[in-house]
Amino acid sequence: MTPAEILTQLGPRFEQAKEAEGGLLFFTSTIVKHRDESGIEYEITLCPALQNKPHLPTPHFAQENKPLKFDPFLPPYDPNLHVGPLELRLDGSEEDYVVLLNKYSVVPQHFLLVTKEFRSQASPLLPPDLVQTYLLLAAARKARRNLFAFYNCGDNSGASQAHKHIQFIPLEDEDGPPIEYLARSVKLETADTPFALNLSYANHVYRFPDRFYSYSPEALEPVLAQAFLSLLDLVISTIRHDPEYPAGKPSYNVVITLEHMHLVPRRQETHVLAETGDQLSVNALAFAGMLLVKSERELEAVKTEGVGKILRAVGLESVHELQVQGTAAEARDVET
Ligand code: AMP
């Protein structure tokens, strides 16, 4: 199927899956807007019904280069959730994918792009993953729909499935998730150079060229691959500045929109809320500006503690200034 065909199928498949016995569980929720000192208007989704969702323990990805005993992202697919296959053939790389609806949905039509073969969720996004993801975003734009993508990579990123899956959330707002307001407001002196948003936690952002959505898959590939690699380098460099970073493979979150790619290094999966002692699990969605809480009590605790403080606790300290100075020094070395 093409990305456009997948998108056409999403609505009807979602409605069928919701009705089917043993199909998709849709949890109703309310959205509360909350602006914090960073100026971002966070969308906090209050979803009490999630308290009934089965708790999935975090797999230890680093030890898993093969599927677990039960891998819901391998065939036979649940027919209620299966939307269709996607194949990507590029010069020198190819990968087959399957699109599945999220079985536990808070946002209607939340879907997953999973690799057909098992690949580890602790592995980085490869060029075909990036191109396939962006082609879905571009196809949505063409169909006058709004989507953004996210990827939770590694043990401490908030992921709960070990099989590589990139997630997509439909949005009402054509401007993208809340973080995009801040990303878009940054005036860049040099194109093609990663930058950082002035936030409480380390983050690395890359702005795509103008009208990137009109690029062919072959033209998307080098830009996306270069963007991801340069941001991943910065993530590793940020982690190296933290002497207490947990051992093992790095964890980070990725958010991809039509205009930007964001990478956020992670040091821990959950934050214990000071006011209630509840554990709040944090994944890429929170760094896109969309948090999920399961009770009014949690909602109040998040507002009191402050989103910035919570995200800083599960992320890392920004060393952006040091990194910029380092790059400038390297450039001087090359010139002399
Ligand atoms: P993460 O927790 O980031 O690893 O994302 C895993 C996603 O897969 C979540 O959105 C889950 O709700 C979803 N999920 C879990 N089990 C299934 C399943 N059997 N079929 C489809 N989606 C699932």
Task: Summarize this structure briefly.
The protein has 336 residues and is an alpha+beta fold. It is built from 8 helices and 15 strands.
Q: Which CATH architecture?
A: 2-Layer Sandwich
Reading side by side through the largest sheet, how are the strands ordered?
A: 4-5-7-9-8-11-12-10
User: How many separate domains?
Assistant: 1
Category from helices, strands and their pairing: alpha+beta
Overall mean pLDDT stands at: 93
The count of β-strands is 15
> Helix share of residues?
25-40%
CATH superfamily: ATP adenylyltransferase
Pick out the low-confidence regions: none
CATH class: Alpha Beta
How much of the sequence is in beta strands?
A: 15-25%
Helix-strand string: HEEEEEEEHEEHEHEEEEHEHHH
User: What's the main sheet like?
Assistant: 8 strands, antiparallel
Oligomer: single chain
Radius of gyration: 19 Å
The bound ligands are:
adenosine monophosphate
Question: How far is it from the N-terminal to the C-terminal residue, by CA?
Answer: 53 Å
What gross morphology would you assign? globular
With helices defined by DSSP (H or I, 4 residues minimum), what is the helix count?
Answer: 8
Protein name: ATP adenylyltransferase
Domain Ap4A phosphorylase 1/2 N-terminal: 21-179
GO molecular function, one term: ATP:ADP adenylyltransferase activity
Keywords: Nucleotidyltransferase, Transferase
